[in-house]
Design brief:
This protein is an alpha/beta fold and about 230 residues long. It has helices at about 40-50, 80-90, 135-140, 165-175, 215-230, and strands at about 15-20, 25, 30, 55-60, 70-75, 95-100, 105, 125-130, 150-155, 180-185, 195-205, 210-215. The protein binds cytidine-5'-triphosphate and calcium ion.
Length: about 230
């Protein structure tokens, strides 16, 4: 291959990637959202397509990004819409990568009309839990309702007094039931709203591969190397 050329090791594979941050409406002009830029998910979709995969990118809100060439893009807003799209798109996929930042909670009510201020204090915003899309994909597959070879999660973690970022990642991989989990250390200018990422790729088989600080395309290549290796039985 030419120097710098990507392998075509995902030729004939179908992959689904989610990206961006969901927005959970409060009223027609306001929402509960998060800082996800969508860049990591877009990089994953772009690199997979460059390596020959048939790619569907299910994207929630992102900063202004160009659609990756040769990728089918499905746009969603809320976690519930993301859930519906992911369950529909993932059947028969060789790999499903949940890089989206899904809101864990949404406002219980969202009003049809804009909430107006008045002289009294505002009501508190009551929240309810959103579906866990990755957990539902794992469950649907276990129930035989979904055919998907590899399910991949992402986790942005901060360390604390008694638990490291890596420990949080190990626990999350075990809890989620997916095959691979990308763990990113957040804070100190990492992960959100920046071009670069750093972390580990944890496998359910116990493998723990450090991912060097570098461009999101590097993380994407590291992940597709692992996916391709597992799909090809290496
Ligand atoms: N995820 C999801 N649906 C949700 C929340 C998260 O599919 N409602 C997915 C994310 O896309 C990611 C993985 O689950 O791939 C881990 O997300 P994360 O927010 O780190 O995990 P949670 O289980 O929500 O735990 P917590 O936020 O409490 O750390
Ligand atoms: Ca969460």
């Amino acid at each position: 291959a030419a120097p710098g050329a990507l392998p075509r090791d995902l030729e004939g594979r179908r992959v689904v990637v989610s990206a961006g941050g969901t927005r959970e409406p409060l009223d027609p002009v306001r929402y509960l959202g998060n800082r996800s830029s969508g860049r990591q998910g877009y990089a994953l979709a772009r690199v997979a397509a460059q390596r020959g995969a048939q790619v569907t990118l299910v994207t929630a809100h992102t900063v202004d990004l160009v659609d990756p060439a040769g990728v089918r893009v499905v746009r969603v807003g809320t976690a519930d819409e993301l859930r519906t799209a992911m369950l529909a798109e993932s059947d028969g996929a060789d790999a499903v990568v949940m890089a989206a930042a899904v809101a864990d909670f949404r406002p219980v009510e969202h009003t049809e009309h804009k909430i107006k201020k008045s002289d009294r204090d505002p009501d508190p915003v009551a929240l309810t839990r959103n579906p866990d899309v990755l957990a539902e994909l794992v469950e649907a597959r276990a129930d035989g309702k979904l055919d998907a070879a590899l399910l991949v999660g992402f986790a942005a973690e901060t360390g604390d007094a008694d638990t490291t970022v890596l420990d949080h990642g190990r626990a999350k991989l075990a809890r989620k039931g997916c095959e691979l989990l990308v763990v990113n250390a957040v804070g100190e200018g990492q992960a959100f709203e920046v071009e670069d990422n750093a972390g580990w790729l944890l496998g359910v088989d116990g493998t723990e591969q450090p991912i060097p600080y570098g461009a999101k395309a590097v993380l994407a290549s590291t992940l597709w190397d692992a996916v391709s290796g597992q799909l090809n039985g290496k």
